[in-house]
Amino acid sequence: MPSKPSSVELADTVSDLLYGVAGWLLLVLGVAASLSGLGGLVQQAGTTTALVPALVLGLGVLFAISGMFVSPRFRRRIDRRHERSRFGQVETVESGTVSSAEDRHERCVRCGSGQNGSGLARRFRREYVVAGVPVWTSSEKHNFYCPRCALNEFPSLSTTDANDSTAHATVETE
Ligand SMILES: [Zn+2]
What we know:
It is built from five helices and three strands. The protein folds into two domains: 74 residues; 86 residues, no CATH class. Strand 2 and strand 3 form a beta hairpin. Helix content is 47%, strand content 21%. It has a three-stranded antiparallel sheet with strand order 1-2-3. It is α+β, with helices and mostly antiparallel strands and 174 residues long. Zinc ion binds next to helix 4.
């Protein structure tokens, strides 16, 4: 399994950061515009000039909303949303493989081996969702399993390729 070169990762991080900044700027700008528009609307209610603050308010809300969607953090939350009807506390478990290329020093929760290598990471999350979108994560926990314990613990993970060594070999030569 080839991992992403570090330059790509760096570019990802930088673009994430830029999108984050752009998102926040839009959000702050939008909220500020909405507030001033709202203030003007209250002051000039009933008059014809109320149209201008109303426009400012509309634009501000538009800015704020687009800011939320530009922000990668918010988009990630949208990506892992639940069903639209979900409200309240939800517990989720995500599992993914950890490659040895990642410089992580995790300890296997089963055997306690502290070797730095590939394995299985399971992430437990307890979060509050509104209309399926996670708004607040109340607790988050990582569990790391070394490859040996991962196979013992979750045998279903190995059924796809571990029994078929010839198929595995052809994949590797490509
Ligand atoms: Zn282990």
